[in-house]
Hints:
With about 60 residues, the chain is mainly alpha-helical. The protein has one domain (about 5-59). About 70% of the residues lie in helices and about 0% in strands. The N and C termini lie far apart (about 45 Å). This is Phage protein. It comes from Lactococcus lactis subsp. lactis NCDO 2118.
Amino acid sequence: MNRQELETRLRQELAIPFYNAKIAERDYSESEFQEMKAELKADIEQYAHDYVNETNTNG
């Protein structure tokens, strides 16, 4: 899949409609997509965890 298709699938599968990936314009395999998706999901979860913990700590 190309960069546009990859971005579209990430937006749909992770429910982040305005996400714009900063990735190279080339073809990506399904395994590369799954890896990027897993990394992005982990980053989002870590951000949410850190934000919630920070908010709860600071009141």
